[in-house]
Amino acid sequence: SLTIGIVGLPNVGKSTMFNALTKNDVLAANYPFATIEPNVGVVGVPDPRLDKLAELFGSARKLPATVDFVDIAGIVKGASEGEGLGNKFLANIRESDAICQVIRAFKDENVVHVDGKISPKSDIETINTELILADLQTIEKVLPRLVKESRIQKDKQAQVKAVEEAKAILEEGRTLFSAGIVQGSERAALLHDLHLLTTKPFLYVFNVDEDELTDEDFKAEQRSLVAPAEAIFLNAKLEADLAELDDEEALELLQSVGQTEPGLATLAHVGFNTLGLQTYLTAGPKESRAWTIKKGATAPEAAGVIHTDFQKGFIKAEVISFDDLVETGSVADARSAGKARMEGKDYVMRDGDVVEFRFNV
Ligand code: GDP
Fold first, then answer.
1. Omega into 38 within 30° of 0, i.e. cis?
2. Which of 49, 71, 72, 361 could anchor a disulfide with 39, C-beta 3.0 to 4.6 Å?
3. What CATH number does residue 316 fall under?
4. DSSP per residue, 90-111
5. What's the pTM?
6. Ligand 1 proximity of 11 Cβ (cutoff 6 Å)
7. Which parts of the sequence belong to the OBG-type G domain (predicted)?
């Protein structure tokens, strides 16, 4: 499955946040035989639609979609020089599908900042600089060979052009993601073989003081630092406290700081989106479940997530939108109201589709 690597300078609250994340680990609860690695947190993506489906179908359990977060320790200035920790750090990032930077905004005299001052802007620059330098090194290694090859293999010229363009962006101190060279784009495809770090989607978690959670001016300012990447604002210590409470107590604590859901729930949602994922739903007496697919997946591809045989033998998908199902109250009533659609193999799945697949075995 796809993973999000958590990075950040020392003492910004990564461990505090990661520990709170693993308290919400859904693997342990739902998949008792899964191996759980110490630096991986499998986090459920909260989905109130599952509660509603479980109610309608009398489901014995609810299984949300999940996002995997990996705690990548050890960014330091000079990581891109690739010595010791630096090498391991870069290898770990290379294996991640998205990069989540934790940025310190909270003020606390008892917690030392590595650079001596609280400055989200310069922290972001410090981390991005290491990633940018690592990409420039990669490019400098392969470019001369590519240029040589392109003199004979004319089809390599587009690639050379893309690599030179990427080099120019990086030399301006910008990540390729912020310049719009994102995975899935044509330009990124030309760079694919280089496994560059900064084409990965980025998201930013600002670990803020509690009063900043509701400070819209402050948040707008931080958002502008990281756009087009998403910004999430949370207080890691508060998240750690929330993870220890039952639902009712947690809601009370959240309301006392002007919030409606835990920051980690927002992080799970945003992370899931950043990875280019979406869900569809199935429901029955055994379970109500959100299944993970890539955005743009077709009905047979979606069926394949449940079982490869479902994809191979795919005939049709009976699709009811979640809203229609809730409004009519049951599959039978949705059918008689003409709200159940039979979709074929070219159907592109939509968020909120409740599905039953028909297939040959
Ligand atoms: P890491 O090095 O990035 O993993 O940071 P830690 O999670 O170990 O946190 C470093 C220190 O900052 C610890 O003493 C935490 O208790 C403290 N800390 C973490 N988050 C917050 C926060 O939101 N507010 C305050 N005041 N302290 C925090």
1. no
2. 71
3. 3.10.20.30
4. HHHHHH-SEEEEEEE----TTS
5. 0.90
6. yes
7. 2-254
